[in-house]
Amino acid sequence: RFASQTPPRDTRYARINDADLKNFEKILGKSYVKTEEIDSFNKDWTKWYSGNGACVLLPSTSEEISAILRHCHERRIAVVPQAGNTGLVGGGIPVHDEVILSVRRMNREFDFDPDTGVLSCDVGHVLEELEGKVGEFGYMMPFDLGAKGSCLIGGNLSTCAGGIRLLRYGSLHSHLLGLRVVLPDAKGSLVEFGSELRKDNTSLHAHHLFLGSEGQLGVITGVKMTCVTKPISVQSAMLGVNTFDECRKILRIAKTKLGEILSSFELMDRETIGVLEDNLQFSNVIKTNPRFNILVETSGTNIDHDREKVDNFLEYCLSERLANDGVQAKSAEEHRLMWRLRESATIALTLDGIVFKNDFSLPLHSFYQLTEEVRARVGGAAKRVVCYGHMGDGNSHLNVTSTKENADRVYKMLYPFVYEWVVKHGGSISAEHGIGQLKRPYVNLGKSTEERNLIRSLKTLFDPREILNPYKFL
Ligand code: FAD
Ligand code: S2G
Ligand code: ZN
């Protein structure tokens, strides 16, 4: 009921009939065309969205997807691509009766070149499984996120996922070399964009258009991307800090004193720690109940050198009274406990009632001001206002929880206030989770008409009958 106003079903789209299902079964085989027990595909992870997807199709090859899209183009049947269904904005959930095209079975192809670190694979691999497979060659995926056990690389590409390593390894754009895409046009065109080469300046690099396209331009079926060498030494430290200004100063010091080995700089405010303590009975690794926890991670090649660097960094922050407490992980177990705190925030919040999730990019000078203003604005109506996130990337996950009774009131206090506030302060209303259904009405905030019109003409170019993931931001 909080989801942004759902647009009415567009009558241009055909409703599927038995002949369609027969055709899908001819393409995929009966067992991969599901019309029963498809709730888990029609509901999203946050349980905010539930679609009426008429059926779920489970292809295992690009050719099968091409045949499906050819048929859907001809019959003008709306299709929503889906991967691991861990998206947090309802992007992979039908708004009405769109057919769900799941890439879960697209996990045959896997090829890795240990000389170049280039991964070339189908999009249905689970992120954590890819981490393990490239790990055998001494490499690591260049991004990591809390949903790694369920999200698929196809979904990560389509949302241009960020995660906890972006500060060090850059966004997925820095690692993308090529994509295999099936277009929703009359032929169901199968197009290979880019190559396996790090340097290939022979085209417009159009594959980058599909990063973050949220299933609206084409179905991504294969990827070629660079992975990074697995660090021999991963160190972490947790600092207790009293003011956000000091957190900003510590970030600058981390960048100079830890330099190239700095790989994560995550923030949790005291309220975030509170929801972890109350709902998961975790305890803070910092015992002085600080206003902020800062989790710093380094990834390097020499354990002794890195440990010493982190030690000097910690000592400096303490002696300069920027942090009032700090501890370096002395074992893999301590490292895991620190990260368990940070990565469990999402789960802890799901136990707190109705959760209004946010994912903003903000300039650091106003990063925490929004949380303070929201706290003042929602006051007693909300249960909790917490802020955690990838501070090193300026990415705030301001989450507000409420009881069922107060939810409508809190929702109206929050939206569109927070989106307008973010855009007014030079931020972005979506840092890494995408737009989906959640932010569709606000996607034009701060965007020029020229840009909007150009982007729309790209949608028409790739998806002439607008059958792919309709009712979303394009
Ligand atoms: P889905 O949710 O299935 O789909 C996501 C979008 O991609 C949809 O719009 C869908 O239509 C489209 N799509 C899927 N497959 C294809 C395809 N093959 N071709 C074209 N379009 C396609 N996100 C972050 O960025 N950073 C985080 O730190 C982070 N932490 C998370 C922690 C938890 C506990 C959870 C539950 C989620 C978190 N997320 C995070 C959000 C989510 O995991 C990411 O958005 C992830 O990239 C989604 O991948 P998925 O495979 O689940 O995709
Ligand atoms: C994170 C997960 C989703 C959320 O933990 O970094 O991206 O907002 C988030 O809880
Ligand atoms: Zn995040």
Automatic annotation (TrEMBL):
Statement: the UniProt record of this protein carries the keyword Flavoprotein: yes
Keyword presence, Flavoprotein: yes
The FAD-binding PCMH-type domain, residue ranges: 49-230
GO molecular function: (R)-2-hydroxyglutarate dehydrogenase activity; FAD binding
Pfam families: FAD-oxidase_C, FAD_binding_4
Named cofactor requirement(s): FAD
Catalysed reaction equations from the record: (R)-malate + A = oxaloacetate + AH2
InterPro entries named among the record's database cross-references: FAD-bd_oxidored_4_C, FAD-bd_PCMH, FAD-bd_PCMH-like_sf, FAD-bd_PCMH_sub1, FAD-bd_PCMH_sub2, FAD-linked_Oxase-like_C, FAD-oxidored/transferase_4, Oxid_FAD_bind_N
Enzyme class: oxidoreductase
Gene3D superfamilies per record: 3.30.465.10, 3.30.70.2190, 3.30.70.2740, Uridine Diphospho-n-acetylenolpyruvylglucosamine Reductase, domain 2, Vanillyl-alcohol Oxidase, Chain A, domain 4
EC numbers: 1.1.99.39
Keywords associated with the record: FAD, Flavoprotein, Oxidoreductase
Domain of life: Eukaryota
Function of the molecule: Catalyzes the oxidation of D-2-hydroxyglutarate (D-2-HG) to alpha-ketoglutarate. Also catalyzes the oxidation of other D-2-hydroxyacids, such as D-malate (D-MAL) and D-lactate (D-LAC). Exhibits high activities towards D-2-HG and D-MAL but a very weak activity towards D-LAC.
The protein's name in its UniProt record: D-2-hydroxyglutarate dehydrogenase, mitochondrial
Organism, scientific name: Mesorhabditis belari
